[in-house]
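Could you help me review a protein record that somebody else here produced? What it holds is a sequence and that sequence's fold in token form. I have pasted the whole thing underneath without changing anything:
=====
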Amino acid sequence: MADAAEFQGTTSIPAHQRLRRTAALLTGILLFVALLQLPSAPAAHAAAIGSRTVSVSIDSLTPTTPTKSDTLTVSGTVTNDGKSTVSGGRVALRVGPQISGRSAIDDVAKRTGFSFGADGAEVDGKYTKKIEKLPAGISRDFSIKIPVKDLNLGSDGIYQLGVALTGHSSTQAEQVLGIQRTLLPWQPSAVDGKKTKLTVMWPLISTTHLTARTASDPQQTPVFRNDDLAAEIAPGGRLQQLVALGKNLPVTWVIDPDLLASVEAMTKNYSVEQPDGTTAPGKSQAVAKQWLHDLQDAIPGDQVMALPFADPDLASLAHRGKDVTGSLSHLQAATELAATTVDTIIGVKPRTDFAWPVDGAIDSSIVDVATSAGARNVITRSDSLRDSDLPYAPTAARKIGSGNTAIVSDARLSTAFQGDMAKAGNSTLAVQQFLAQTLMVTMQEPQNQRSVVVAPQRTPTASQAQAMAAALGALSDNRWTQPVDLGDAAKAKPDPDANQRIPGGGSYSGSLRKQELPNSAFQDIKKTQSTLDGFKVILTAKDRVVTPFGNAIMREMSTSWRGDHRAAENFRDSSEQYLNNLRGQVHLIQKSDATLSGRSATVPVTVKNGLLQGIDGLRLVLTSQQPNRLDVGDPKPIAVEGGHSQSVKFETRANANGPVKVTAQLLTEDGEPYGGPMYFTVQVTSITPMVLLVIAVGVLLLVLAGLRIYLKRKKRGAARDTADGDQHDGGEDNGADSDDPEQPGDPAPDTGSQSTDPSGSGEKVDR
């Protein structure tokens, strides 16, 4: 029954549907047979899943920008990452299609696996390297040389160049087991259009090395946080390589003056802090002298741009510090110090009108802070000031109002060498990408000459510097670029279609914001500056203290602290502590309680100056808590030579026996307390008999004087009463005028009302 039902269902299918199914089946069979007949290359494409078995590294490609007559040499290594031996292998070049667009250049390094259509066919088989056996985990070197003409490159442009290993793994058929791609700029002669003006910033910047601390000697031997700077400027070190490589490159030097000041300090005696808090003598004087000599020899003819001293973090100032009183004044001071430092140490007058925020990231507040100290050119980056609507890279200079210019560096070119350039494969790829991007910029608008700026990472490693130098060296024939300095780039005519709008604060990168100095850092800086201001006013050689601590305060704002908040805090704390220790070297020596055996006596108070320099401008004030019992006299001026003490004597007067508490306080000329108060007690034990006798005689004289006045006035009062009685009886006189002048012998006028003597007790005095 079941068979019958199935048969009946089959016979119910219409004839035209049965014909369609039959045709589809025959087509499928033909396609399967055709696939079996395809050559090995499409078969390899079908087996692309195996193209990650072997890793390929292109460690060297020369020349990087070949011409038609050159022979291209590609060298590198292949490594079997699989579990079985690769046999019958060969390494060959594959030329892909011409690349169009800057984004396509970025995609080359991101692609994985093998694609026949995207990677192209093998170049002529005679330019291959055979590797018969490649066991699991084993690497082999390869080197392929091929005349450029045999690459069959087409028109000028950028081509993808692949290096692939083809072979057998286990029992599988031959396939591409690994591939690495790079880029080949193909511009055998100078471009027909206008060359791109290329500006490359070459940074000489380091971390903070010098502390505020100096040795207690007349030379003020500087103390370094560590000896890392010696390693950086030594042969093969990062900074030594930057100077040696930059000497032969058309670059604009970007220098942190603090680096020069630190290296210059190393040319003399210096000390290095040890983990246990002690110091040890530095030993790299010769290295420091050589580095400065090499730098002076490298920069003639190049433009030098000086950052503000210690490279202050402009974004931290804008977002966290500008609301803390005095913070922006340090930026102004750092800018002014920059020019004199560079000129003094290497004999070059630098440009100081450029500001360079971290990674070129800006917002309106950063621009405001950056231009507040005199900078008129702010270096930003195209991933911060975006030009999303333009199909080409516009000129770097943009007018942003108030007479200021934004220099928008190219983000792709500026970040091209940020990876691990110690690996030859990474370095080679980065160089080729950089060259390809510069050629693509020129090809985008060949008749529209533009000025492009490269602002790399602030502190490139030695290997990153070497990769950058290799790329710039490849452009030395100026086939599609021509070098200009940063000043010329700032003066270039802006593209009217380029973005000139400064982004708002919300666009600033959150990851960068987390690295900024906190608000508390600027509060600490304010506190240290206030302490310094209160200390320097008493010094006779202010520069010995103001200079090292002023520089330390600038270093506390350095960009080099980004991402290392603990180290930044430790540096600030150590500076403040050391300053307080110095300030405490000028102090009052604690005085024991004093005893006075008379009405007046001398009370000495001692001021100690433990500094190497003299002090002046202080006053010592004694304050009696019972001035009616003990008068301590007037304040005394203080001036003490370095390393000495001064005893100041106060003439005191006691009016009663007993203890009186006294406070001693140093004050500056403007009345501000210097240091803490010192307390002691003055004990008045007795008043001498002579003093008592004098007091008794004085009291007796006062009593006698009062009695005499009383008697005298009483006598005058009686005489006046008698005179009044006589006048009353004279009413019968013969008419003598009462207004006649007084005759000789008349009583003297009563002048008692004008006497200054005290009145008698209870006596009425007519006024």
Observations:
- The mean pLDDT is 86.
- The longest strand covers residues 86-99.
- The chain has five domains: 2-36, 47-186, 197-505, 519-583, 594-689.
- Residues 519-583 form one domain.
